[in-house]
Structure formats: structure tokens, C-alpha cells
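User: My collaborator sent over this chain with a note saying "see what the structure looks like." That's all I know about it. Can you take a look?
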Amino acid sequence: MLEKCWLFYVLLILLLSSPVLLNEDVCDANLKSGETSGCGCSTSRKEEPATNHWTHENHDQISADEGKLSLDGMAFIAGGAFHIGTDEPVFVADGESPRRPVVISDFYLDTKEVSNRDFKTFVDDTGYVTEAEKFGNSFVADYYLKDEVKQEIQQAVAGAPWWLPVEGADWRHPEGKGSSLDGRMSDPVIHVSWNDAVEYCSWAGKRLPTEAEWEIACRDGKQNRLFPWGNKWNPKGQFWGNIWTGDFPTTNTGEDGFKGPAPVDTFPQTSTGLHNIIGNVWEWTADWWQVQHQR
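Assistant: Without extra context I'll predict from the sequence alone. Here is the result:
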């Protein structure tokens, strides 16, 4: 009953995280999801069989010296038969039920979320312009905005009035005009759309993970647990991830050490070496988001 901790409390459009390399030729740059993040491959996805299992053909393991790709900073995640989802969802609207079987192949996943420093290297190398930069705005939680900025905003997200469209908000300017990345180069990049994420991944020679791959990596070999390390968020008083602490969305106590995103190498690793696999920021996966699943 692992519930994905999507408590993204800083900026809405979104993080780019944990690119993935699979030991097979599967991916589809046309699949989208508003849930999690990773990177792209140049070959096409095999058509899904008419079953509630995810099955793929096995291929020889990709070597670290093939092309420009390096496995440095990536964790090996063993494939097999697993269950994802839960029959006891905390938030039914998230579409995490029912618990259902999946079969995946071995793959590699970046051990850290993509940092501002990583993304800047990509932009410097390619001249890429993100969609938030093209649109001229993105969404920011009002908690992080100055009063004079909030006074100029007349719109908000229906049902989530703390999400405000901010002119000039993009990955270089997390809170809009006048903000910068000073002191944040190790923080995860935000205001990154699914299309931006795919472009970054393609540049890196990787691809976005599927939701099933992401969840298997997140579970860290466990079943029927709320978090990768167990059922308590901060066992013995130790924090293992970064979420909003306090009265959301008005008061953030920062008792986990952060009132905004934590650097990508913060908090204990999973057994496979992954940092911040839950919490910190929202992430992208390759899949379309859906709320109905078959067992």
C-alpha cells in the first residue's frame, strides 16, 4: 500500500527527475503523465499486449561504453514480477487502486533528481528554451511569493487557490521576476514540462521511466508499506524525505530542515542508492495518467 508522496509544495510545473535507461528498447515519446520524471530512448515502445500485465522483450544489457552514455550516477533496478498500486488508497482521486500485477525488465535509474546544475549544462549545450519560458509564466505556491507579487495576480487554480500563475516564473526564476538560482544549483530543477523532460532525456541518451518502473524502484524491494523504508514517515525522529511540515498551505515549519526543495543528494539513500525517491518535488513518468486500472 505504498502511497506516492506527491506533496510538491513549491512550484507547480514541475521537476525533472531520475532519468532511466532500460536494458531493452522500450519507450514512447508520445506517452505523457503528470506524475513522475526520467529520460528518453531513441527506439520505439513495443505495443502493449491485451493484458493487465506490463510485458516487454528481453535484450542484452546495454554496456556503459555504448555511445555517449555512462552509467555513472545510475542505480541498477532488477526486473521481475511485482505488484503496484494499493487496495487501501489514502487519496482515492489519485487513481492508485487497485493493487495490480506488473512485469518489468531490468533497468537503470538516476540516483538523484535532475539538479539546476544538470539542467543548465543541457541548456548551455543545446540552447533549449523551456515551455514555461515560451509561455512567459508558470505556477507558484503563494507561500513563497512576496505580498506585492500576489497583489498583482487575479487568477488561481480552481480548488487549489494557493497555486498562482506568476509572470516570469521558469526554471531560472523559480518565484518569477527578481528570483534566481543563487544558492540553488544543487536543488532539483522545476518549472519543467513533460516535453522539456523528454528533450533533456533525449540529450542525455536516456528516457523517462514508466510509472511501473518508477514505483518498483520506489518500493525498494518492499510490499505493503507506506514508504520505501517502512510505515512511519520519520521513524525514531529521523526524516527520510522532504515534504511540507505544518499546516498546509499556510504554515511550513521546516522541521525536516527545508521550507523549499532540498538539494538532490539530501536524506538517506534507498538500498539501491536512490535519493529523494518520494517527497521534495513532483516528477514525470512516460505514461499517461489514468485513474482506472484493471487487476
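A starting point for your reply to your collaborator: The first strand starts at residue 20 and ends at 22.
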